[in-house]
Write a sequence for this structure.
């Protein structure tokens, strides 16, 4: 029992000491003054343009909202599918009603243009 | 051995972090995220109770499934209203919503 | 599992009506959507008539998850009759909308469905689902006026605070489940022992009271209500004021009276504090209000305090008073808000001072406002007096004279600000004395609310019978 903890303790010590050594060595070896590319957003490739806090079109959110709503509803399908054989025909009809209600919602989202991308 | 207590403490911590965020954040989206944390804390509670206290009776887990769905619906409506008010005021900071007396 | 689906007729018809309205609004082209309001009102009225067939039926389905009993039926009828009145009162408002007319009524019916499910729930899960169906629908309805900054702002405040309160409520429910090891409310009676009260149970109860306290806008959970009431479209406000409150009270009764009568002394202390605070603070802050919707919001806080005394009594008489008062409150509140709808529709103002001289401009509106406000204040022979009599006599019978005294004194305070509205309407000089015309649907709502309020004040027996039947579901003292 105690030996197992000794292993963990040794591991812990190594895990703390090793990074300290590595960081210490690298701080001795590396140049003190960084090259100018060091301060750019990406060290290679094109220069960045404009602010980093850009705004997305709200259409994107509409898409995401509709997706989340329908995605989460499928949670109900899993338990139903697992137990499908033992539930009988009536559960099938119930799920049919459930999906019909979802389809009405989907129809509504479609008609209102929530799925248009322009 | 991990037991019921650990899960309850985790749930309580998450709930408190969420509540703190919901009360102190000034950004509407951040408040919605904090509320989501609170709801997930409840899910941890429900599933842990169901697993440890009533292993043969899974009402808690069923409850958690319903909570997930309701939380998604709630947050979808919340974000939609945030978008609506953003179009109107060009801001989602709660301090800017002072047309009605808060 | 065999389920008798005929027991769920009301729920299925309401869901069918809501979905049917949504489909209709998809099929009918935008410029031809006219009669949706009347269709909704007629549909809900038919369901209301059918609900009387369920009086006296006491059954449970799916192992107690859902209950069909007189108590649930009483509150279902309350939700449906409020739905009919609000649908009619919405007609002039919806006609001014450019789009989304069908959706408005569909959402209204979905909110009704949420209340119906909530009051029939016999299990924490179905209770929570009903609650959220109602609340989320109200989020949308509050922010319904597109391009209106106040409506959007009220919407976001309601969403953030409402979602937070339901998270807190849910944490309380999870604690309750952990302590009782069941989610069926009727089984709580045997699994929670009076002798062993754990801190987890106390925490759960506090969170439950907090979450539902938000819905009934009891002090100190009332801060949202004036803002949301003022910003939301007025028909929505009236439904929010009566429906949300009545359903949350029904849930209170189900969980506390139905599930935990054995630990009464704990929650009665909580409710007594809430009740006294709501009566005092609600009435005092209502006095300086200048906007009629804000004034009615604070008066609603005070009314929540009066109704909570029914919970404090913890007896069948208390439940009877609570149910009776809530039904009366529906008519008084919808009447008062409908006057505000008609007034702001004609003049664009919600300010009390602009109502000066309303008795000359439209005598019917002034009379209905007067009757509804006096009923809320509890002046005999109006219905509110009978309601307060039932509530206060129930707590006096339990030896809580102090709370009844607080209620009486605060009712007298409330007469002051109710009458100052009346004074403005009857004594004030109108800046613009031109008569106000209101549409026929509003007139119908006004007349129904006034007649019912006066009739039940003089002859309360029919409603008392129903309320007594509702209370008899619970086996208390």
């Amino acid at each position: 029992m105690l030996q197992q903890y000794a292993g963990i303790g040794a591991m812990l010590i190594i895990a703390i000491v090793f990074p300290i050594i590595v960081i210490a060595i690298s701080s001795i070896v590396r140049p003190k003054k960084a090259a100018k590319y060091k301060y750019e957003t990406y060290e290679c490739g094109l220069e960045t343009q404009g602010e980093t806090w850009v705004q997305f079109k709200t259409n994107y959110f509409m898409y995401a909202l509709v997706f989340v709503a329908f995605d989460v509803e499928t949670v109900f399908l899993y338990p139903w599918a697992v137990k499908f054989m033992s539930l009988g025909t009536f559960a099938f009809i119930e799920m049919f009603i459930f999906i019909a209600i979802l389809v009405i919602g989907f129809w509504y989202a479609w008609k209102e243009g929530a799925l248009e991308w322009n | 051995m991990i037991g019921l207590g650990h899960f309850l403490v985790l749930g309580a911590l998450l709930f408190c972090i969420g509540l703190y965020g919901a009360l102190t954040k000034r950004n509407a989206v951040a408040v919605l995220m904090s509320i989501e944390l609170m709801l997930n804390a409840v899910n941890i509670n429900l599933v842990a109770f169901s697993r440890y206290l009533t292993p043969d009776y899974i009402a808690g887990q069923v409850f958690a499934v319903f909570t997930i769905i309701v939380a998604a619906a709630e947050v979808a409506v919340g974000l939609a209203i945030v978008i609506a008010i953003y179009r109107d005021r060009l801001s989602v900071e709660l301090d800017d919503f002072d047309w009605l007396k808060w | 599992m065999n389920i008798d689906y005929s027991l769920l007729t009301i729920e299925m018809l309401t869901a069918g009506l809501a979905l049917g309205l949504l489909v209709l609004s998809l099929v009918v082209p935008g410029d031809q959507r006219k009669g949706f309001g009347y269709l909704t009102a007629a549909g809900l009225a038919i369901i209301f008539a059918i609900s009387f067939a369920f009086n006296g039926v006491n059954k449970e389905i799916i192992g107690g998850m859902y209950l069909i009993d007189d108590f649930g039926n009483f509150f279902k009828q309350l939700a449906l009759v409020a739905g009919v009145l609000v649908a009619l009162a919405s007609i002039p408002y919806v006609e001014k909308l450019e789009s989304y007319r069908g959706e408005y009524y569909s959402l209204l019916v979905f909110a009704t469905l949420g209340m119906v499910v909530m009051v029939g729930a016999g299990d924490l899960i179905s209770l929570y689902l009903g609650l959220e169906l109602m609340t989320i629908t109200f989020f949308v309805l509050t922010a319904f006026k597109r391009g209106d900054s106040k409506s959007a702002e009220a919407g976001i405040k309601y969403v953030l605070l409402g979602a937070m309160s339901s998270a807190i409520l849910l944490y309380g429910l999870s604690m309750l489940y952990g302590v009782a090891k069941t989610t069926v409310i009727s089984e709580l009676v045997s699994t929670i022992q009076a002798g062993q009260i754990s801190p987890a149970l106390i925490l759960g109860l506090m969170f439950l009271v907090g979450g539902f306290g938000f819905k009934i806008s009891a002090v100190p959970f009332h801060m949202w209500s004036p803002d949301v009431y003022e910003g939301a479209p007025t028909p929505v406000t009236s439904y929010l004021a009566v429906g949300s409150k009545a359903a949350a009270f029904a849930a209170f009764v189900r969980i506390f009276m139905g599930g935990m009568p054995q630990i009464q002394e704990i929650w009665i202390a909580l409710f007594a504090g809430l009740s006294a605070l709501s009566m005092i603070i609600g009435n005092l802050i209502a006095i300086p209000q200048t906007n009629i919707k804000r004034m009615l919001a604070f008066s609603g806080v005070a009314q929540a305090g009066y109704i909570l005394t029914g919970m404090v009594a913890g007896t069948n008489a208390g439940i009877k008073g609570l149910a009776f008062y809530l039904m009366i409150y529906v008519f008084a509140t919808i009447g008062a808000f409908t006057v505000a709808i008609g007034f702001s529709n004609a003049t664009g103002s919600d300010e009390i001072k602009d109502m000066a001289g309303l008795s000359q401009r439209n005598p019917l509106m002034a009379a209905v406002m007067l009757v509804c406000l006096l009923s809320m204040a509890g002046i005999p022979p109006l219905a509110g007096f009978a309601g307060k009599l039932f509530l206060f006599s129930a707590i006096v019978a339990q030896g809580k004279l102090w709370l009844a005294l607080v209620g009486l004194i605060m009712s007298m305070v409330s007469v002051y600000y109710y009458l100052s509205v009346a004074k403005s309407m009857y004594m004030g000089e109108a800046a613009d004395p031109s008569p106000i015309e209101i549409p026929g649907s509003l007139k119908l709502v006004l007349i129904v609310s006034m007649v019912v309020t006066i009739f039940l004040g003089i002859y309360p027996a029919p409603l008392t019978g129903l309320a007594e039947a509702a209370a008899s579901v619970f086996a208390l003292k």
Summary: The mean pLDDT of chain B is 89. Residues 59-89 of chain B form the longest helix (31 residues). Residues 95 and 101 of chain B are 11 Å apart (CA to CA). Chain B has three helices and no strands.
